[in-house]
Amino acid sequence: QKEVEQDPGPLSVPEGAIVSLNCTYSNSAFQYFMWYRQYSRKGPELLMYTYSSGNKEDGRFTAQVDKSSKYISLFIRDSQPSDSATYLCAMSSWDGQNFVFGPGTRLSVLP
Amino acid sequence: NAGVTQTPKFRVLKTGQSMTLLCAQDMNHEYMYWYRQDPGMGLRLIHYSVGEGTTAKGEVPDGYNVSRLKKQNFLLGLESAAPSQTSVYFCASSSRVGGVSYNEQFFGPGTRLTVL
After folding, report:
1. Does B101 contact A96 at a Cβ distance shorter than 8 Å?
2. How far apart are alpha carbons B69 and A78 in whole angstroms?
């Protein structure tokens, strides 16, 4: 079993849809949970950052962490064509070690 | 600030050739990383460095060597390239908080390498 698994996609949705992207993990030592966004032919960039369990909202984006289920999600409301990208979840232990990326989900938002 | 830069952007090698990829960052970050990204595999850590003069192996280090002679530069070398090393290579850096890596990694634009 891989340490981090992510919905493989690709995912195509119409503009304005609510998007749910998900990752599961197996290592209970993970404390920090991140979502990176990667546009085509670019490097990833940090989108959201959460510590431990709970929700975090930033504009149209909400990150959710359920440590009891070892499950994290990223919700995008009112999706836009500019949200079309690959989304990678990432997580690490409290000391920043054991940093692991998920394989990514490619999202296309169609106008 | 340029952030993280990588050279070259593209390269085609023949099997057995060698090359060096250069990563430079101007954010005074302590930590630097080399990843490779392959379809369906996500980002896999090749080597990393926690400071000038130090290097450590990541998940997939075989066939690669690295050096960190200056804080701002991190070099990735392929001594004898193989077709399995065809990939997109990303360099990243992060700062240190309280002696450990702060989790936001800043990535360069990538180098697309093809080994024939």
Report:
1. yes
2. 47
